Amino acid sequence: MRKFSFMMVLVFLLSSLITACAAGATDGPEKGAEAYLNALVEGDGDKMATLSCADWETNAMLELDSFQAVEARLQDMKCEQSGTDGDIALVTCQGQIVTSYDGEDTEIALNTRSYEMIQSAGDWLVCGYR
User: Fold this and answer.
1) Which of 51, 62, 105, 106 has its Cβ near the most Cβ atoms within 10 Å?
2) What b-and-e string marks burial along 53-66, b requiring 16 or more CB atoms within 10 Å of the CB?
3) What confidence tens digit (pLDDT) does each residue in 10-24 have?
4) Which domains, ranges and CATH numbers included, belong to the chain?
């Protein structure tokens, strides 16, 4: 009986630990959008792929390709969930992507689109924008 009680306590503690770790890994959809934008300006295609749903991955790589000839950085970025559409969380960001080419800066406003975020295996992934 003592062994059974010990096993039950152990199972309870392990399940609590797993639940706590999963909850910690699941940031809100706004953090997923911010991570995606950071990977974009850093030119990190592998990270962008992991931050994109399967249906969006090709588009993410095309978006990354469009930044290859410029230096890019984020300025004053702040994202927040702006709504939902079924299982999709909509995230709108403020700030700019500032690109620099041949000494000339161009600002791209982030508030012109809402990112469509879906949750998969505890992570929020970009799956398009509107």
Assistant:
1) 51
2) beebbeebeebbee
3) 344 434 434 444 444
4) 27-129 (3.10.450.100)
